[in-house]
Amino acid sequence: MQEVPPHRPARPGRAPLAHPAPRVYRPAAAAAALALAALAPGCALGGDVHLAPVVSHLSTAGGGREVEAAAGFLRFRRPRPDEPWNEFAARPLYNRVDHPDGDWSTRYLVPFGWSRQRGTRYANQLAPLYRYEEQRHPDARTEWSLFTLLAIWGHSNSDKTRKAVFPFGGVLDSFLSYDRVEFVLWPIWWKTRRGTTTVNRVLFPFFAWSTGEGTDVFRVWPLYGHSVKPGRWDRRFFLWPFFHWRRDALWLREAEQQRMWMFWPLLGRRDQGTAHSTSVLWPFFGWTRDRDSGFWSWDGPWPFVRIQEPGDEELRSVRRRFWPFYSYFRGQSLETRAVLWPIFRKRLEIYRDRVRRGWVAIPFWRRWRTETHEGEFLASWERLWPLYNREVRPDGYSFAFPDLNPLWRTPHIQENWSWLWELYAQQRRDDELKGRSWGGVYRRELDRFEDRVGIAGLWGQRRYRDARGGLVRETSLLFGLLRFRASSAGFGMLPPALPGPGWPAERVEHVPLRPQDAPGKP
Question: Which of 3, 24, 202, 507 is most exposed, with minimal Cβ within 10 Å?
Fold first, then answer.
């Protein structure tokens, strides 16, 4: 069968491509070719082949099929033996997953590149080089944008414009927090518009002025500058950075507005209501006090010492910092402690429906646990680098040894790189248990109805219950040359199935296994 070509984004100005059909893979033929020298006339091509780390074609827990080659570098997967192959990986260079609804996602050069199709949206990114996005609308309109290190380009059938080559020139609508940005030979000239206010800047940061209604901006840096937005703020400087004045929260009553002045860096003052702050030799020394609430804080010498007391207001925070020896912080929904920061840290996060506790000992150990406010367990994760990582949830767990990934928690990097170094990994979800050694030499695939376990070429075993409920054990030795079955009906030999173990692609699904049938069964 011919493979369906992958989706590619529509080129600027052209109609979008039709929604791509799921990609169809034929890895079974490739796997058979790799193992051809070992195949004998008695081999059942549709059965399990376990020749890891060279190649394997195995039934997975839950009834799927998986082909692996080159110790796990190449991998194909399908959810059921009679369904299309929906996952391909050449880790960490490329992997792709096709979803039942026609969407798909890929990752390449992990962790830098990815692409995905979600309905009428398509995106492709290779950090930090570029990012491409495309949106197809029901009325056949197509919007797209391309961001690169030096250029931004986009197209839509609306009145939006996105064309820029930095620093030479460009026009960008709806960019960052601005409605429109225009520039020529940045920073020589650029203009921004937000609402009814337009700000022109020449030889940034030296000259700026505004037009239109709203914010009033004027700057001749470093001599003088101001930014005034009626009802919001009034900020001014003179001989920057020495003299500063500002008023904030102008929508409040005059007594509650915030006022600040500073003669940098010698002395500064901030007042708001009954709270007053003073800084000396900013940022090294400062103190604040609110005579009504009793709140007070002291900084000095910054950043080594900071003490903060909330006074009578419970929602305000408590802080003790004697950096780097010890620090403590408690707020409305967060409590942290650190000793010899950042090496030893403890953290408590309180959410509306859960509580999360975390512990860190950099760079080796990290752990967190999530539970309800009543103490019911929700999830936990632990990592002792470079030895292991372990995650536990109510429906299962995962474990890997060793774990050489230097980043704390990066599932996509773990998925695409860990096959190089993991000597053993195991995961359970509901009634399914999967275990493997490096390269897949040892594999175990246990679900509700079957337990398949083996060491490549040497030994394999299959356990299940027949239609009458009797336990059946099938064993394969020496690349499937010697195979036999033991059950309540007696003992019998099975035909050879080189290169073995030759278990059928379809798993039995009639009588579930019992815990005593398969050690480690969930």
Answer: 3
Judge whether residue 204 has pLDDT over 80. Answer: yes
Closest among 180, 188, 183 to 164, alpha carbons compared? 183
Per-residue pLDDT, 521:
67
The rounded mean pLDDT for the chain is 88
State yes or no: pLDDT of 357 exceeds 60. yes
Position 107: which residue type?
Answer: R
pLDDT tens-digit profile of 58-91?
Answer: 999 999 999 999 999 999 999 988 889 999 999 9
- The pLDDT, as a whole number, for residue 292 is 85
Distance CA(67)–CA(245), nearest Å, equals: 69
Q: Please, are residues 123 and 141 in contact by the beta-carbon 8 Å criterion?
A: no
Name the DSSP class of 317.
Answer: -
β-strand partners of 443: 436, 454
- The DSSP string of 142-193 is EEEEEEESSEEEEE-SSS--EEEETTTEEEEEEETTEEEEEEETTTTEEEEE
Contact 205, 221 (CB under 8 A): yes
Mean pLDDT of 35-57: 67
| SS3 assignment, position 209 | strand
- Cβ within 8 Å of residue 37, ≥6 positions away: none
Q: Where are the beta strands (DSSP E) in 35-120?
A: 49-51, 55-59, 65-69, 74-78, 87-90, 94-98, 104-108, 113-118
Summarised one tens digit per residue, pLDDT across range 18-38 is 334 434 444 444 444 444 433
In the numeric block, which tokens belong to residue 232?
Answer: 């919001």
Q: Report the SS3 class of residue 370.
A: strand
154, 162 in Cβ contact below 8 A? yes
In terms of C-beta distances under 8 Å and separation of at least 24 residues, what long-range contacts does 42-47 make, across chains too? 42/495, 42/496, 42/497, 42/498, 43/480, 43/497, 43/498, 43/499, 43/502, 44/497, 44/502, 44/504, 46/81, 46/504, 46/505, 47/497, 47/501, 47/502, 47/503, 47/504, 47/505
**Cα–Cα distance for residue pair 3/30, rounded to 1 Å:** 14
**Residue 506 CA: distances (Å) to CA of 46, 48, 452, 486, 521:** 9, 10, 12, 20, 20
Give the mean pLDDT of 279-308: 93
Query: CA 282, CA 301: separation in Å to the nearest integer?
Result: 10
How far apart are alpha carbons 513 and 522 in whole angstroms? Answer: 10
